[in-house]
Amino acid sequence: QVQLVESGGGLVQAGGSLRLSCVASGSILSINDMGWHRQAPGKTRELVAGISSGGRTNYADSVKGRFTISRDDARNMVYLEMYNLKPEDTAVYYCNADVVETLGIMTRQINYWGQGTQVTVSS
Question: Residue 5: is its pLDDT beyond 90?
Answer without folding.
Answer: yes
